[in-house]
Backbone:
């Protein structure tokens, strides 16, 4: 794979010399999430394959162009998984896109986010330097943790080449239960469950129904089921995949992602909603003006991003201090601003 790295470095060097922007791209499954897509495409899918995986060590190292489905199958063969349950949004989704997007699925509230599982990363910076950060064990970082900073960077900080990720065993048993309630009742119930020692691995409220997934040992799951009640969901796995991949009807339209306090009351926004992560993640499909959505998120103790559907405006609002920090980090790793300019914000 050295020839692939050499070719990528040559492209970066040429872009630096000509001050020509590059758009780092895997399968393009996350192209919808952008303020603006600019630059010549720089494909990384040819740099693929699992570099190292030993199930007993709970660590997998793989190249960025490796299909995410291939990664998940490899782990399933070892009775393990990516615990943050990343969405694919397409059959050809890659590991690089998974980490670069930093998106976690229904299990995030119980297991952690993408960046919580990133141990090490290899990348090309904005001057074509081949850099490595972190390693293959949890306690490997002194100073600023640049490897985890790459989760959610959407290619704006470098060409991501390889990752070392912590993986976890698959649960012995999983069961999904459904309760019919209104939004206020669902939020109160999720808050109450979160304060109890229950094996809850996912929650989702939409269209008058609260669905919960229990994961763990057979005895633990059965004990929790007896305590909670509810109606068993016949095909729970299919439901959670639909939530993860956003194929449920309430996800259609201009979709906003609001991260708020889990105890925040129902949001006063028009449109359909899907509530996950014990109430802390609110998906809202709405035609409401952007500023109204931003203000609703702030009032609920959080922030909003326009996840899908363009209205020509910014997909997020950043406080002046946060924006200044983003610019400084961008300047340090990509001094000529060649990587994915304006992908996330009009000012960098």
Residues:
């Amino acid at each position: 794979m050295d020839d692939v790295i050499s070719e990528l470095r040559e492209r970066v060097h040429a872009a630096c010399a000509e001050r020509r922007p590059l758009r780092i791209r895997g399968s393009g499954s996350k192209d919808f999430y952008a303020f603006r897509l600019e630059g010549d495409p720089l494909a990384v899918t040819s740099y693929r394959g699992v570099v190292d995986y030993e199930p007993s060590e709970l660590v997998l190292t793989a190249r960025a162009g490796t299909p995410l489905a291939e990664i998940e199958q490899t782990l399933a063969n070892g009775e393990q998984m990516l615990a943050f349950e990343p969405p694919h949004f397409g059959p050809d989704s890659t590991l690089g896109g998974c980490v670069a997007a930093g998106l976690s699925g229904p299990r995030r509230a119980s297991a952690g986010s993408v960046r919580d599982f990133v141990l090490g990363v290899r990348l090309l910076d904005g001057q074509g330097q081949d850099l490595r950060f972190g390693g293959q064990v949890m306690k490997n970082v002194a100073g600023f943790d640049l490897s985890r900073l790459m989760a959610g960077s959407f290619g704006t900080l470098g060409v991501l080449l390889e990752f070392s990720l912590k993986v976890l065993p698959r649960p012995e048993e999983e069961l999904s239960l459904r309760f019919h309630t209104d939004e206020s009742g669902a939020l109160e119930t999720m808050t109450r469950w979160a304060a109890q020692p229950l094996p809850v691995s996912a929650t989702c409220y939409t269209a008058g129904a609260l669905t919960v997934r229990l994961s763990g040992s057979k005895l633990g799951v059965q004990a929790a089921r007896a305590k909670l009640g509810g109606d068993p969901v016949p095909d729970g796995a299919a439901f959670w995949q639909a939530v993860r991949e956003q194929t449920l009807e309430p996800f259609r339209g201009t979709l906003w992602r609001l991260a708020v306090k889990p105890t925040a009351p129902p949001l006063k926004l028009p449109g359909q909603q899907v509530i996950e992560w014990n109430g802390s993640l609110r998906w809202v499909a709405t035609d409401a003006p952007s500023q109204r959505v931003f203000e609703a998120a702030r009032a609920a103790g959080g922030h909003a991003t326009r996840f899908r559907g363009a209205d020509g405006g910014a997909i997020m609002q950043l406080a002046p201090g946060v924006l200044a920090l983003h610019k400084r980090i961008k300047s340090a790793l990509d001094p000529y601003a060649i990587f994915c300019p304006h992908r996330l914000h009009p000012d960098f």
Summary: The radius of gyration is 21 Å.
